[in-house]
Design a protein that fits this description.
Shape of chain A: globular
Largest interface: A-B, 31 and 39 residues
Number of domains of chain B: 5
Number of helices of chain B: 15
Strand order of the largest sheet of chain A: 1-3-2-4-5
Low-confidence stretches of chain A: none
Radius of gyration of chain B: 23 Å
Strand order of the largest sheet of chain B: 15-12-14-13-17-18-16
Distance between the termini of chain A: 66 Å
Low-confidence stretches of chain B: 461-481
Oligomer: heterodimer
Strand content of chain B: 15-25%
Number of strands of chain A: 9
Structural class of chain A: alpha/beta
Number of domains of chain A: 4
Mean pLDDT of chain A: 91
Number of strands of chain B: 18
Helix content of chain B: 25-40%
CATH architecture of the largest domain in chain B: 2-Layer Sandwich
Mean pLDDT of chain B: 91
Largest sheet of chain B: 7 strands, antiparallel
Chain lengths: 415, 481
């Protein structure tokens, strides 16, 4: 057996649930781009099985096929046998981290994981970036060609257009009208620094819907990025720290970042004592879909992109569309292949910029077909990625979180 | 049979480095299709994008006497797209373009790797569809459908793949690029198209397919009827056909299958039923309405628990999603299974169901059933755990017994999945020596050196007959056939 035995090895019974039917193939972004079985879910599961049976080692080639997976979990939605591919992938990545990894990637990962899941450090890095941009260094950086030699850094640089000013949030936002419940709000890492207004709008809408919103200070990262990168120990430590930051008597823990929500809803899979906490996690659209919101008209044509970890990870497909459909005057046009990953995939666009680019181009082409001027997506990674693509292509399209549209519609009603 | 360095270099020159898979890891994932029982990794996988590349590959392989295995999406159920003796696998999945859509003449020309459903999706908004609808249609390729002459639920009314193929561009095993058939209604000369459809890659490799497109019916009605006994459902099937109704599809599923489907697809089939019939009627609205009522009445008369009509397109799609993903959902019941594809005359359906239950009990195996009841085409899934050798042996015994029972009732060894490696040995049950020899000679006319998909479709250890011997002594002993 090529896998190191122990709890971190992929579950062989889960692997064996795959009956090799191939229904996942056309739904897999990397298979669509590359057209190779080993870069498909069926192929990757087959490789995991071969490794578990000792037929292949954890070779560089093996690792390449696993690294190239976005972890979008579209295959899970497609799979009639219910193979939990995401957890197999996490376990396989954890195994690979125990063996060697190319030095360059290791360095990059070390940087990414020492910054992204640490809200304070991320804030510092982003502040430095702001300086870089405004001081004219950015023009120099781009002109010098230095970025071209470092594709991941270039991707990171290009993704960030600007860093908005922070929006201070109170610890408690009282409910408007009759109390519907008490909820906690996860402010996230990337979300809080790059999309603080999404957090503000989320809290406002929840309050308008009758929820008292508790926003604990000092809440950390959910650990999703680390889980997806095969760092289960770091993920577990963050999960154990995050859960107690929220009072135990909250009705729901609300997230507005699909990646965080999917990871938190699955805390119980790895850490049984966190199952009750995980059971209370909801995406903001799930909570608002059942609430009484008074929305005024918005004269907009909008299309909706399904964030992978919302549609595939949490199976939330209907609620965001239903909410947008409730805004008077808003025309919702379906996006072709809306469930196909945009290439962001957490930090994938930094680690695998070429594949990410291919998928982004595909997504932009579909967006252009809709004729919509606004794209809504419920995850900060997608917002960054698609906005970057539109900027680069000169597409006159605004990229927003659905709650931004709902908040504007709520304002329009109050007017 | 490892391939030589110069051979691989030449192959790489043809398809480029990105079109050639040589790593152990890469070759391994191509070692089987959906029939995972049969494994055989190719020595290399070529992923061409153009017909010219395919011609060059075949000529190269012919020169070096290297076997070729064509593969589409790898969803076959007969061990057709695996390499029992190695060689070069040609994956057509990167040749997936729609070359031409000609709606006035109701046809389209596509590359073989195009996914079946993609064609219907491309013409649906204009009111057309491609009729062959194997359950794998959301992933299987049209080239693969042609190779196996695939069926599907709607073949009951619309016919099998062969009825919808107008022309083929084929690179024969001799490396010639030939065009078979065409869009004319009555073509002069031999009907080579008819011979090539269903030849499972043993004649050559298809590089373009001209298909018939049909105009969508005015009305569609999908009825779900549930029964407390599978015999009642079988009799309802016979009665519907006897009443002169030709449903677009008439499918039956048993209790075990219903459970897997409900868990796996959320299709919402009735939980307490022993059998479910899925009846679809299409055509002019008035006719569909009248036939729907008659079919429902027949189901009630045969003791149906519930007869439900899909309220809208979304509900219809969900009912079909359940049916089409049935085989994929079986992973919830057992890690491995043998999937049978035998056929009995429609009138024997109740009898074969009784026999099937008895066989399952005799061999102590669980059997889940899904079948194209209207065609008498059975798909029993015999469940086993491949870690238990005893279970596999019992499953195989049950499988063979079932097949023989079907033949004895006047049926055939395969309905729509094809022969492949799995059923080549069963062909003598159905054909005489002269029949088989004639098939060997036909195969040789297309593939003189027996390089195309060796070991598939025709039995490999015949008793006699000149057609069974390798045509050229240069073929190494035991390499193939």
């Amino acid at each position: 057996m090529a896998f190191v035995p122990g709890s971190a090895a992929p579950d062989i019974d889960e692997i064996r649930k795959c009956v090799h039917c191939g229904i996942c193939l056309p739904q897999c972004p990397t298979y669509r781009v590359l057209g190779e079985e080993m870069d498909s879910p069926r192929g990757r599961i087959y490789l995991m099985r071969a490794a578990a049976e000792g037929r292949v080692g954890l070779t560089e080639t093996f690792q390449r096929h696993i690294d190239l997976c976005l972890g979008c979990r579209a295959c899970e939605t497609a799979c009639p046998s219910g193979v939990r591919f995401g957890s197999l992938l996490e376990a396989t990545r954890a195994q690979l981290r125990r063996s060697r990894s190319p030095a360059r990637r290791r360095l990059l990962e070390a940087f990414v994981f020492s910054v992204f899941p640490e809200p304070v450090r991320l804030g510092l890095v982003l502040a430095a970036f702001k300086l870089y941009k405004r001081s004219g260094l950015r023009a120099l950086g781009r002109a010098s060609g230095a970025l071209r030699r470092l594709p991941s850094l270039a991707a990171m640089e290009a993704l960030l257009d600007d860093v908005p000013a922070a929006i201070p949030m109170p610890e408690v936002v009282p409910a408007c009208g009759r109390l519907a419940g008490r909820v906690g709000l996860l402010t996230g890492c990337v979300q809080r620094h790059l999309y603080p207004h999404v957090n503000r709008d989320t809290a406002r809408l929840l309050s308008l819907a009758g929820f008292e919103v508790v926003i604990p200070r000092g809440q950390g990262c959910c650990g999703a990025l680390e889980l997806h990168a095969g760092r289960p120990e770091a993920h577990a430590a963050r999960a154990r720290a995050l859960a107690p930051a929220f009072p135990a008597d909250l009705d729901f823990i609300v997230t507005n970042a699909a990646g965080c929500g999917a990871a938190m809803k699955e805390y119980g899979h790895r850490i049984p004592e966190l199952a009750p906490f995980a059971g209370r996690v909801r995406d903001v659209t799930e909570v608002l879909a059942g609430a009484d919101l008074r929305l005024g008209p918005l004269d907009l044509t909008v299309t909706y992109h399904d964030a992978c970890h919302l549609v595939h990870g949490q199976r939330v497909r209907h609620e965001p569309r239903q909410l947008l459909g409730r805004i008077p005057g808003l025309r919702l046009v379906e996006l072709g292949d809306s469930e196909l990953c945009c290439g962001s995939a957490g930090v994938y666009n930094l680690l695998e910029p070429e594949m990410a680019r291919e998928l982004l181009d595909e997504k932009l082409a579909r967006i252009a077909e809709t004729g919509a001027r606004v794209v809504a997506a419920a995850n900060p990674g997608c917002l960054l990625q698609i906005a970057w693509g539109c900027r680069e292509r000169g597409l006159d399209v605004a990229i927003v979180h659905p709650v931004e549209l709902l908040a504007r519609a709520a304002d329009a009603y109050q007017d | 049979m490892p391939l030589s360095g110069p051979f691989l270099q030449e192959l790489e020159r043809i398809v480029g480095a990105s079109g050639l898979v040589r790593t152990l890891e890469g070759r391994l994932v191509y070692e089987c299709d959906m029939h995972t029982f049969y494994k055989g990794a190719p020595d290399a996988v070529a992923l061409p994008t153009r017909t010219e590349e395919v011609v060059e590959i075949v000529n190269l392989c012919r020169r070096e006497r290297v076997p070729i295995v064509p593969r589409g999406s790898g969803t076959g159920l007969i061990g057709g797209a695996m390499a029992p003796v190695g060689g070069v696998m040609i994956g057509t999945n990167r040749m997936d373009a729609i070359l031409e859509i000609d709606l006035p003449n109701r046809c389209a020309t596509v590359q073989p790797g195009l996914i079946n459903l993609s064609l219907t999706q491309a013409v649906a908004s204009r009111g057309y569809f491609f009729a062959p609808d194997p359950s794998s249609q959301m992933v299987s390729s049209i080239g693969g459908n042609v190779a196996t002459n695939a069926g599907g639920p709607h073949c009951l009314k619309y016919g099998i793949t062969a009825n919808h193929i107008l022309g083929l561009e084929l690179v024969t095993g001799a490396g010639e690029l030939v065009r078979l058939g065409g869009t004319a209604v009555d073509r002069p000369g031999y009907d080579l198209l008819g011979a090539a459809v269903g030849s499972e890659g043993t004649f050559g490799i298809v590089t373009a397919v001209t298909v018939r497109l049909l105009h969508a019916a005015e009305a569609v009605k999908t009825i779900l009827a549930s029964f407390t006994a599978i015999e009642d459902a079988s009799e309802a099937v016979s009665a519907i056909i006897a009443a002169g109704i030709v449903p677009a599809a008439l499918e039956m599923l048993d209790e075990l299958m219903i459970r897997a489907i409900n868990e796996g697809t959320g299709a919402g089939y009735p939980k307490d039923a022993a059998a479910v019939l899925l009846i679809e009627l299409d055509g002019p609205a008035a006719e569909v309405e009248a036939q729907g009522e008659r079919a429902a009445r027949i189901c009630w008369e045969r003791g149906a628990l519930e007869v439900r009509v899909a309220a809208d397109a979304a509900e219809r799609a969900l009912l079909w999603k359940g049916r089409k993903e049935a085989a994929g959902a079986v992973g919830r019941l057992a890690p491995t299974y043998l999937l049978q594809d035998a056929v009995v005359p429609r009138s024997k359906l109740p009898a074969i169901m009784r026999e099937l239950i008895a066989i399952g009990a005799r061999h102590r195996v669980q059997i889940a059933n899904v079948f194209h009841a209207g065609d008498g085409n059975l798909h029993p899934l015999i469940l086993y755990d491949d870690r238990e050798p005893d279970q596999l042996a019992r499953a195989k015994a049950a499988n063979e017994e079932l097949l023989r029972a079907c033949i004895e009732m006047g049926g055939t060894v395969t309905g729509e999945h094809g022969v492949g490696l799995d059923k080549a040995k069963n062909l003598p049950l159905q054909y005489g020596e002269a029949d088989l020899n004639f098939m060997y000679r036909l195969r040789r006319a297309f593939d003189p050196d027996s390089i195309m998909n060796p070991g598939k479709l025709l039995p490999s250890h015949p008793a006699c007959g000149e057609g069974f011997r390798p045509a050229r002594p240069r073929v190494p002993d035991g390499a193939w056939i």
